Amino acid sequence: MRSGFISIFGKPNAGKSTLLNALMGEKLAIVSSKVQTTRHRIKGIITEKDYQIVISDTPGIIESKYKLHEKMMQVVKDSLEDADLALLLVDVKEDPKESDEIFTALKLRAPAMVILNKIDLVDTNRLNEVSEYFSSRPYCKKLISISAASGINRKKFISSLLEFIPEGPAYFEGDDISDLQTRFFVGELVREKIYEMAQDEIPYQTTVQVREYKEKESLVKITADIIVQRETQKVILIGQKGSMIKRIGTEARKSIEAFIGQKVFLELFVKVKPNWRENELQLKDLGY
Fold first, then answer.
1. Smallest Cα–Cα separation from 242: which of 265, 270, 215?
2. Homologous superfamily (CATH) for 182-285
3. Which residues pair with 109 in a beta bridge?
4. 2-162 is classed CATH 3.40.50.300
5. At residue 159, what are phi and psi to the nearest 5 degrees?
6. pTM surpassing 0.70?
7. Would you give per-residue pLDDT tens digits along the chain (288 residues)?
8. Domain parsing of the chain, residue ranges
């Protein structure tokens, strides 16, 4: 039996959440074309008869500008502590030196695999160039090229990971696919729709707090607050005659129903908490 922790690291928008979802075979992490979508450590648990691997999606590595960023970067540091294997994800379209600086600064103690992602978007010359660059880096024990969005050979990919995973008993019992509660994923699915539908700075100044999650006979009743920083943002998210909040709610409900496999009644409210991203007590209350 092999059992261990694997953490995915990389720049914002490298495709970390897409890779986690591909490895899990289902959607655990929300995905957006906007950067800095992931704010928490999201662990996916894959258990088979001869192995258990716990794969963590982590926030994209950035320079902290406010307390929420500091919390996100602490998540990255915590993920370094228990990793048996680090997956260093690279967008092959971007300058490899930028990712190299980030990976070198991590001061990895665990072995690392470099994963070149989005290879369907570059030509062979570019792929060879980036491959040669990372193959020569001291932290790179193995290099794999993929397109996480187009699909991966899941069995082959996991087999390559197991080479670095130690023997040992499973850390989690049962058939759970994550250590996080369902209400966490509900909040993330609502936040994903805000990223899809809202513009400019609104997604980055917004978070979601699930206040009620009640399972009834015929459906699940969910009440959630969308937290914003300013009254003007609240007005935009509500929309004319409630049009925007209705659209967000409808699309979020569909995603939640698909995730939990039950009918959902979803109520959303928009609340203003000025400067919540810099307030330690509010950040703690909001789960950061």
1. 270
2. K homology (KH) domain (3.30.300.20)
3. none
4. yes
5. -60, -40
6. yes
7. 999 999 999 999 999 999 999 999 999 999 988 888 999 999 999 999 999 999 999 999 988 888 999 999 999 999 999 999 999 999 999 999 999 999 999 999 999 999 999 999 999 999 999 999 999 999 999 999 999 999 999 999 999 999 999 999 999 988 889 999 999 999 999 999 999 999 888 999 999 999 999 999 899 999 999 999 999 999 999 999 999 999 999 999 999 999 999 999 999 999 999 999 999 999 999 999
8. 2-162, 182-285
